[in-house]
Description:
Blueprint: H1 2-31, H2 47-66, H3 70-74, H4 89-108, E1 128-136, H5 141-152, E2 157-163, E3 168-174, H6 180-189, E4 193-199
Antiparallel strand pairs: 1-3, 1-4, 2-3
Amino acid sequence: MKNENKLAGAGLLTAFAASLCCITPVLALVAGTSGVASSFAWLEPFRPYLIAFTILVIGFAWYQMLKPSKMEADCDCDPVKKPKFTQTRAFLAIVTVFAAIMLAFPYFSDKLTSSQQPPAEVTPNSEVQRIEFEVHGMSCTGCENNVIKAVSQLPGIFETTASFEESLASIQFDANLVNKDQISAAIAESGYDVIKSNPE
């Protein structure tokens, strides 16, 4: 039973690690410390391996839990004392469900972070420009929303889009109110690396 506990703990830990790169931006937005948002982005390349390891470990824990023990089959002994809750199937089921939620986190993290921003209004004096930044460190939709929120807090932003898959952020802004360097700095302060910009 202790082995199943260790396996369940290892499975939970790897499931958490597999989604840490996506959990951090959500926690950063909630806590208001967006600078730490990409601290665990380095884990993203290892995510498929962590997912596979989690599935193997939890699957093996279930195998160990469900297989009949030799003592039970061969012996007509006194009933074994009741196991602790952490050694039961119910606990392993809870761990399995929690691990599944952690593994699926990147697919629903955008629901937990709002990227809505009140856009600036275009006036006759507005000098509307669009710029595209190559942004590294984004690994999920939560990261995209983190970048969008950081940029939208600047004055004169009309529209912001971000794509973690393309490592791009596209911003339409009023050049009379904000400049390229300020936008780049806002993205960098939110915890991501701005590699270069391409004016459109």
